[in-house]
Amino acid sequence: MNWALRKAIFSLAAWFLAVSISILIxxxxxxxxxxxxxxxxxxxxxxxxxxxxxxxxxxxxxxxxPWWSKxxxxxxxxxxxxxxxxxxxxxxxxxxxxxxxxxxxxFVSYSLSLTVILGVLIGIALAYYRSNTIFVxxxxxxxxxxxxxxxxxxxxxxxxxxxxRWQLLPYMGPYSNDVTPGLNLQFIASVLYHYTLxxxxxxxxxxxxxAFGISAMASAILKxxxxxxxxxxxxxxxxxxxxxxxxxxxxxxxANIAITFTWLLVGTVWLESQFLLPGLGSLxxxxxxxxxxxxxxxxxxILITAIVLGALFTDLTYGFIDPRxxxxxx
Amino acid sequence: xxxxxxxxxxxxxLVFKIFSRSPTLLFSLAVLLVYIIAAxxxxxxxxxxxxxxxxxxxxxxxxxxxxDFPWYILGTEYTGRPLLLTIIYGIPKTxxxxxxxxxxxxxxxxxxGLIAGYVGGLVDELLSLAINVALTIPTYxxxxxxxxxxxxxxxxxxxxxAGVLSITAWxxxxxxxxxxxxxxxxxxxxxxxxxxxxxxxxxxxDEVLRFMAPFIAMNLVLSCVGAIYGYTGLAFLGLxxxxxxxxxxxIYMAIRGGGALYSDxxxxxxxxxxxxxxxxxxxxxxxxxxxxxxxNPALRTYLQGEEM
Amino acid sequence: MSEILLGVKNLNVSYxxxxxxxxxxxxxxKGETYALVGExxxxxxxxxSSIMRxxxxxAHIDADSQILYYASPHPVDLLKxxxxxxxxxxxxxxxxxxxxxxxxxxxxxxxxxxxFMETARAHNLDKKEALEKxxxxxxxxxxxxxxxxxxxxxxxxxxxxxxxxxxxxxxLNPKLLILDEPTTALDVLTQREILIMLNELKAKYGxxxxxxxxxxxxxxxIADRVAIIYAGRIVEESNVENIFYNPKHxxxxxxLKAVLKLGEFREPETIPGSTPDYRKLPPGCKFHPxxxxxxxxxxxxxxxxxxxxxxxxxxxxxxxxx
Lengths: 330, 308, 322
Description:
- The complex is a heterotrimer.
- The radius of gyration of chain A is 24 Å and the shape is globular.
- Chain A has helices at residues 2-28, 33-43, 48-59, 67-80, 93-128, 133-148, 151-165, 185-194, 196-221, 225-232, 237-253, 256-274, 280-289, 293-321, 323-329.
- Chain A is mainly α.
- Chain B contains twelve helices and no strands.
- Chain B has helices at residues 3-21, 23-43, 83-119, 121-136, 139-149, 152-155, 158-165, 171-194, 200-236, 247-256, 267-295, 297-307.
- The radius of gyration of chain B is 23 Å and the shape is globular.
- The mean pLDDT of chain B is 84.
- In chain C, the strands form two sheets. An eight-stranded mixed beta sheet of chain C has the order 7-8-9-3-10-11-13-12, sandwiched between helices. In chain C, strands 1, 2, 4, 5 and 6 form a five-stranded antiparallel beta sheet that branches.
- Chain C has helices at residues 44-52, 83-90, 112-122, 127-140, 145-148, 158-169, 188-205, 216-222, 240-245, 250-257, 296-300, and strands at 4-15, 18-29, 33-37, 59-61, 66-69, 76-77, 95-98, 176-180, 208-213, 225-230, 233-239, 306-309, 312-314.
- Helix content of chain C is 32%, strand content 23%.
- Among the domains of chain C are: 105-173, no CATH class; 253-314, no CATH class.
- The two termini of chain C are 33 Å apart.
- Chain C contains eleven helices and 13 strands.
- The model of chain C has no long low-confidence stretch (mean pLDDT 88).
C-alpha cells in the first residue's frame, strides 16, 4: 500500500503544479482575461468601480490586483471549489461543469474501451498473420490513412455526409427529443444510438496507434523463447495466442491507456462541439468562442484534474495486473 | 576519406536503402517535396498575388471555370478569391508554423533532457519536475486558452503561434533524451576515468545525439504533424484569426457559410483543404515511420548485412 | 545389445538458402545419454528443434530427411506425422525438452502452477492427478512445491527455473528427454547439483537423454556416447572413453586441448581461426581452414564418415583411404 500512497502524493503535487503554472501563464500573458472583461464592461458604459467589482465576482480576482495576487486568489478558488461565475450563462462555473462531466466521462470511456479492445485485436492479428501479406498490407494501409486524418476533420466529414446528407445515423445532440432522460431503457438506447457516429470517429482515429504498437510488441514477443517452449509442450494455439502473446504484448503498453485517455479527452473539444453533444469539450469550445473566461479556465482545470486522475488510476491498476511490477515495490 | 565522412556515407546509404524499398515512402517524400517547392514558389513571388476580397453571394463558392488558368479550376472560396490560389498561399505559413514549432519542441526537449541527464543533482530534480508537470498538460488545451487570450497582433505572428503550439510538447522528448543521457553517463564514467576528463561534456553530447539522431529526427517530423493539427484544428473551432490562407478556416467556412450540409456549392471548398491537410499529414507520418525503422537496430544490421 | 529409441537419418536443415545442418545420421539407444557437442551455432540446437518440430517458419527440412521414433510396433517418422497428431501423441508424452535459456522459457505473466496445469490440460490429464504429479516432480528436483507453485518466474533464481523446467519436462513421463545446455548460465555449485539430480532422475524414471552441450566437462561426466559437431556435420562419433582418451578428428583434439584438467597449469590452447560463416562455407572439409593437418584433398572433397575402429566413426581424410 505504501507505493500506492506515494504515487497518489506525487500525482497531487503534479496536479497542483500543473494548475498553478497554467494559471500563472494565463495571468502573466499579454491579454489578461480580467482586463479584457473589464474593458468590455467599460465599453458597455458601466462605471469603473462597478465594472471592477463585476469582474471580481465573475472571475474571482480583480483586474487591478498584481499578478501574484490574482494567481493566488484563483488557486484558492480552485481548491475550495469556487471557479467563478459564467459570463454567458450567469450561473456558477462549477455547476456548468458538474452537468457536463457525466457526458464526457461516458463518451471518453465508451471510446476508450472500444479503441483498446479493437486496437489490441487488430494489432495481434497483424502480428500473428504476418505471413499473409495481402491482409497485412491492406490493414496497414487503412490504419495509416486513418492515422493521418485529424479526428476533427473526420468528424466534420461524417457530420456532413453520414449525418446531414445521407441521414444514416443521428448527428446532432445526445439523444432524441421524444425520450425522457432518466434510467430507462429507451433513454439509454437513444443515447447510445446518438453517440454511435461520434464514437466511430474517435475510435477510427485512435485505433491505429494501438494496433501498430501492439503489433510491434507482439512481433517481438513471437521471437521469445517462451513461445517456442509453449509450442514444444503441445499447448493449443488459442492458449498461446491469448495467454502468451496477447498478455505479454499488452502489459508493456498498459500505460498508453492513460495517454489515449488524455488524447480522447482533448478530442472532445472538437468532437462534442461538432455533434452538438453536452460535455466538457463542447463547453470549452463554445465558451472559448464567447470569451467566457471563467468557464474556459474552470473547464481547463477540471480537464487537467481528469488527466492526472487517469494517469494515477492507470499506474495503480498496473500493479495489480503485471506480476513483475509488484516484485519491485515490496 | 576520413572516418567521420565514411560513417556519414554509410548512414546515408542506409537511409537511401530504406527509402528505396517502399513505394509509399517515395510517394510521401515526393509529396513533401511538392509542398516545399510550392511554399518556395509563393515566397519567391512566382504566383500572382491574391485578388482583393470580394464579399457577397455572387462571388462566394463560384463553380470552377477556365478563366485566368489555372487558378480558378477549383472555383472560388468564401472570400471570392480563387480557391486553388488561396490553398497554395496557405502552404508557406502552415509549413513555417509547423517547422518552427517542431524546432522549438525538439530543441527545448533535447536541451532539457541533456542538461537534466548530464548535470544531475538538484538541476535534474527541478528539470524532471518541470518535465512531469509539462507531461500532465496537453499542448492543445493550453494552446487553446492562450490562443483565445492573446491579443490579435500576437496571434498572427508565426513565431508566437509556433511557440504556443509547442508549449508543453517538448516534454516527452525531454524525458527520452534524459533517460538516454543518464544511461550513457554511467558508461562514460568508466571510460572517462581512463582518459583524461577533458571535454567529456562534448563527448557526452556527441554520443547521445549520435545515438538518438534518428529518434530526434522522427520526433521533429511528428512535431510538425502535431503543429499542423493544432494550427488548422484550432482555426476550425473559430479561435484563430479568420484568414483564408488557413485551411482549417476554409473547412469551417465551407460547412457553416457555404451550406456544405445541403448543397454542393461549397463541396470543392470543403474537400480541397481537407485533402491538402490529410495528404501532408500522411506524407509526414510515413516519413517519421521510416525514420523509426532507421532507429531500429535489428533492421539496420539486416540491411547492412546485405552488403557483405 | 540395446534397442534404438530414436534414429536420425539424413537430416538436412536450411534457413532460406543457407544450409545449417547437413547429412546428419545418428541413433540414440534406449537408456543411454547421447551427447551432441560443438561450438555455439554449430547446429546442435537446430537438430533438437527439428526433433521437437519447433523450428521457425523460415526453416526448411529436406523431404528425404527422417527422424524415426521406435515406438511399438513400427518406427514412426516424426517429420511426416501431421501436426495435431504430433502434438497430441508425441509432444511431451514421448519426447520432451529442457530448453536452453531457462531465463526466458517461462511465461513471465503466469505462475509456475499455471505452467504445469496448462501442459496437463493440453494433454487431457486430470487436474488433480496433474497437480499431484507436479508436486512430486518438484520434490524430486529438490524444490519446495508449496512455495514454488505460486511463484512467478521473475521471483525465481536461474537454478530454480532450471529445476522447474526439468520437472515440467517429466510431467507426462516421456521416454526421451532432450537437454539443451542444461547447465550453462548456472554457477558451478548449482551445476553440480543439477548434474547429480539428472543422473538420479534418469535412473528413477528410466529415461533416455539427448544432451546438447558445449561444456566438455559435463559431457565427460554423464554421457555414454558422444557426437562432435562442426559446421552442421558430425565429424566424430564414439563412446565417451574413446572421445576423451583416443580422439581422432583434429577438431575434437583441439576442443580437448582447450580445456584444462584439474592440476594443469598452462595456457589453454585455442583452435586458431573462427566459427565459419554458413553462407560462405569452404569447399571440401569444412574444418580445413583451421586444421593443422590440412592436406590438398581436404580443400577439395568432403571426407566420408568411416568407422576407424569398433564403434568409433570419424569424418577426416587422415583416416580415409584415398
